Each structure stands twice: as C-alpha cells, then as structure tokens.
Amino acid sequence: MDLFAEMLTSELPEIDSLLDVDCIRLPLKKRLGRLGDGATRSVADRLLARHLDYPRAVRRKAPPADVYHVLDHTYAASVCALQGRNTIITCHDLDAFEVLYSQTTIGERVLAPLARITLRGLKSATHVVCDSATIQREIVSRGWVEAVRTSLIPAGVHPACTVVPSGAEDRTLESLLGPKAAPEILHVSSTIPRKRIDTLLRFFASVFGDRPDARLIRVGGPFTDSQARMVSELGLENSITVLPFLGRATLAAVYRRATLVVLPSEREGFGLSVTEAMACGTPVLASDIEVLREVGGAAAAYAPVGDGGAWATAILALLDEHDNHPNRWSERIAAGIIHAQQYSWSEHARQLAQLYHSLAAH
Fold first, then answer.
1. Are 259 and 322 contacting, i.e. CB atoms less than 8 angstroms apart?
2. What's the fold here for domain 2-156+344-361?
3. The model scores a pTM over 0.90
4. Domain spans of the chain?
5. Do domains 2-156+344-361 and 167-340 have the same CATH topology?
6. What is the spatial distance between Cα 196 and Cα 189, in angstroms, rounded to a whole number?
7. 167-340 maps to which CATH number?
8. Residue 97 to residues 113, 114, 117, 164: CA-CA distances in angstroms?
9. Of 34, 146, 205, 360, whose CB neighbour count within 10 A is largest?
10. In what side-by-side order are the strands of the sheet with 301-303?
11. SS3 242
C-alpha cells in the first residue's frame, strides 16, 4: 500500500534514530499490450509484479537487513524469496484468498494457484501484523498463523485529515465540484464487488426521491460499465459526481465538505475512510459488519449490508438531524473526532519499531 510506505518511511526515522529504513518500490511494468480491456490488463500486470518482479528483485537486489517488512499481504510471494530471514507481512484483508474457497469460474480457477503462493508466503513469515482484530482473529482461526506470531497494529489517520480547513485545497475542490448548496453524501473507495456499489446507488435513489437536493460524491475512479448503466436506469446522472483518486490533502478537503460519509461494503479489512472522515469532522454511516463496528465504535452509525431501504431510512434520519437538531449533530461530530484520535501513524510506527527490534534481537 502506497499510503503505508509513505507514512512509515517518514515516521519511523522520527520515532527511532537507530532504524535505517530502506524502501524497495518497483515501477509497474505494462506487459500485456492489447490483451483484454484496460482493467484486465491492469490486474494482470499487478499480479505479475507481485509474483514475478518483486520476488526476483528481493532475491537479487535486497540489501542485507535485520528485518524485511512486506507492507501488503498480496505481495507475500516475496517472503518465499527471503527464506531464512526475519520477515514481517502486514495483512490488510482476506480478499486475495477468497478464490481458494470458491473456484466456480474460470477466472477463480486461474487465480487459485497464485492465491496458494500468496498464502504460503503469509504462513512462512516470521510475524504477521494486522490492521484490525477482526482480520487477526480470522487468520488465526483458519490455522494459517499461530496467535503468538501475530500483532494488532491499526492503521493511522493521515495528518491532512483534520477539521482545520485548507484554503488552497478548498479552492481546488470548489473548482471540481462548484459551491456547496445541498447535502452531499460521500463515498470513498474503489468499485470492486465487495464495496457494494449496487447498494450505494439504490439507497441514494431512494434518498434522492425524498431529498432531490441531495448529491452523491464518489472518490475512487469511474463506475464500471454495469454500474454506469444502473446510474442511468435510476435516473441519477445529474445528481452524482465521480472524482478520480485524489491527493491526501484534497481528499481531506472532500471529507470536510461532505455532510455524511457512507461505506456500504460487505467486507473490509479496516475501513480507512471511517476514521479519516471522523478526523475531518464528518459523521459516518457504515455497514453493520464486525470490522467496521470495531473501527468505528460508538461514534459511527450502522445499517445492514445490502438493505437499501434501511440505508435510505438511516440517511434521511441523519440528514434531518443535520438540518433540524444542530446540537445532536455537533455531538455526533465531536464524538467522531475524539474517536479518530486513537488512530495515529506515529503510534503505528512506534509499535512497528518495537517489533523490528524484537525480531532483530532473535
């Protein structure tokens, strides 16, 4: 994960002057030419990078080190190339392993051997760090890694995510979205199936029926073709704005501007947009699943996965609170800000530094 690499390479030297941190990051090779559509090529190129380029690079070029840390479990094949050395993997979610349990399509059967390699790398790591206790319990209960070889170190909130406005970023945002004149519901994530964009569109259509002034802002790249068709079928073309992936400071400005942030995913490993939104002073409505309950705590509101009607009802109630009960809304904002303070990249780095020293000592 680029964010993890960015934050750790900046925080670790500040936390511990004895640490000498070196980051190996390879440019993505685009090999597949005209094979398939753009999305297919991108996924295939990334798979080749994870299973070919990075293992080859660490085998040939990795400098001597006391500890090697693979920051994303989908690159766990690199651990197989570092046999006999102290290795840590950060496991963010279990998506990469789902094909091992469902091989009903040709694509799943093709990906299964790669998933087995990834799992072998995860199992052979000296230590596994998890962002959430939910994922930590899952990998232990599945028998992949003994509990003693795991640690829970939650992800942090980027320093840009605060309630303090940024004039420059606010102006950039206004040039993208225009002036804010209505409730804005924000979704920050990709469009992969587990993010449940179908639910997002259905409940927004219901909300729009009651609140035609409402606007949906999506950050994270364009809809897929099927999702775009759904937008058209629901008549939402003029009430949805899609933004690309944004820089951290601009994204923080989007959070601050939004009335409400929603995360209707059916699975998550952590749910970073929950803590980031709260840190920016924006309330959150999230799926009622274990990991988001863990991360959002009592400061977030929740709705059942896939239940568009329940989501619409919850959103309309929150918008009513925003419009007509300012004291309760202010209390909700304050609770989120306080809750988000427990998620710190400096604390994440401090705990990792302790783990590095512990492994190096052995």
1. yes
2. Rossmann fold (3.40.50)
3. yes
4. 2-156+344-361, 167-340
5. yes
6. 10
7. 3.40.50.2000
8. 10, 9, 10, 40
9. 205
10. 240-243, 215-219, 184-188, 260-263, 284-287, 301-303
11. strand
Q: What are phi and psi of 145, to 5 degrees?
A: -140, 135
For the four alpha carbons of 347, 22, 251 and 273, in that order, the dihedral sign comes to negative
How many angstroms separate the Cα of 6 from the Cα of each of 21, 220, 258, 341? 12, 19, 26, 20
Mean pLDDT, range 290-317, rounded to an integer:
97
Reduced to 3 states, what is the DSSP secondary structure of residue 273?
A: helix
Q: Mean of the pLDDT values across residues 146-158?
A: 97
| Contact by Cβ (8 Å): 89, 76 | yes
Lowest mean pLDDT among 11-25, 30-44, 114-128, 135-149: 30-44
Can you tell me the distance from the alpha carbon of 208 to that of 202, in angstroms, rounded to the nearest whole number?
A: 10
Q: Output the CA–CA distances (angstroms, integers) from residue 175 to 95, 171, 172, 219, 223, in the order listed.
A: 36, 6, 5, 15, 22
What are the angstrom distances between the C-alpha of 26 and each of 35, 48, 66?
23, 12, 21
| Residue with token string 């840390």 | 69
Give the pLDDT of residue 37. Answer: 52
pLDDT at 313 (0 to 100): 98
Measure the CA–CA gap between 247 and 233, rounded to whole angstroms.
32
d(C-alpha 109, C-alpha 103), whole Å: 5
Per-residue pLDDT for 181 more than 90?
no
**What is the average pLDDT across 279-308?**
97
Region at 69 (left for phi over 0; alpha for psi -120 to 50; beta for the rest)? beta
Tokens standing for residue 335: 């609770």
Q: Give me the pLDDT at residue 43, please.
A: 80
Cβ–Cβ under 8 Å, residues 187 and 219: yes
Helix (H), strand (E), coil (C) string for 178-223: CCCCCCEEEEECCCCHHHCHHHHHHHHHHHHHHCCCCEEEEECCCC
Confidence grade of residue 266 (pLDDT, cut at 50, 70, 90): very high
pLDDT recorded at residue 41? 61
Mean pLDDT calculated for residue range 152-163: 96
